[in-house]
Amino acid sequence: MRRGITRRGLVGGGLAFSACGASATPARRTVETPLGRLDIPVAPRRVLAVDSRISLESALALELPVVGYSHSRARPWVPVPAGVPMLAAPPDLEQILMLKPDLILCPDTAPYSDWWPLARLAAIAPVLPSNHRLGWQVNLARLAGWLALTALAEPRLAAHEELVASIRRRHGAAIASMRVAALYFDPLKRRAMVCSDGTAYGRVMPAQVLAELGGREVDAGRLGPSGDVALEAFGDVFGDVDALLVLDFGDGSVGALAGEALWQRLPAVRAGHVHIVAGNCTFGSFYTAQYLADAWAALYARAEA
């Protein structure tokens, strides 16, 4: 029995329902965000992360009590507590309403879209945004500031800085001299999608972490708008690339890429300077940054061997 709650009711009865839940929060504070001034719980008890990547990872890094998340299944390297469910994707507002969140985290990419319905979510609970054109550290620090959790964010940021510094110490010469690329393959369109900074996808995580290391990437100006490279252009784009990090989404695309003759002719591939990293790590936050730092280190180690 759903007790009559519908999407239509979100604007009327649903608002009253969520407000009733919010009244149980013992204390609230007012913060200034890109969405304007918001009244949020001092200590949130039920946090909904709309995006399984940046929203969820940021929430977990700040030890927030997450009650659910959307978009896609959390990556294996993200420590989601047992029992936290993946919800419908795109987000189902009725389902979210029934979870009674007192705080929602959502990208501000398209606030009236089905996938990122930030404007409609605001009728359920206060929404704190992330921005995919900002670096993951900026998003995490900004969220921590709103929630007065900077003391939790700072050790995470410091741990990542130390990991990056240790990789620089081990592979500094290779990082300075080698041009590298992170990519995944679309076997249907037979094209690579390169994760460089400056494409329409915004601040993709492989490019962010490579920049932290001081590495040299393929310039976005040599790529299509979304980082795409047609198969026949592989030689032109990747011919001077020394090492390649290939993202394996587990869909057979890596095997399909290995079967392409133009891929096998690339100097980096012939030299064995290819490292496969499991999982979709194009977006994320602290945990994906750590995961990718280790992946880049493995690629540089392979190229140095």
Automatic annotation (TrEMBL):
**Which protein is depicted?**
ABC transporter substrate-binding protein
Family, according to the entry, reads as follows:
Belongs to the bacterial solute-binding protein 8 family.
Its subcellular locations are: Cell envelope
Superkingdom assignment: Bacteria
Q: Indicate the secretion signal residues.
A: none
Name the InterPro entries for this protein: ABC_transptr_periplasmic_BD, Bact_iron-sidero_bind
Pfam families in the record? Peripla_BP_2
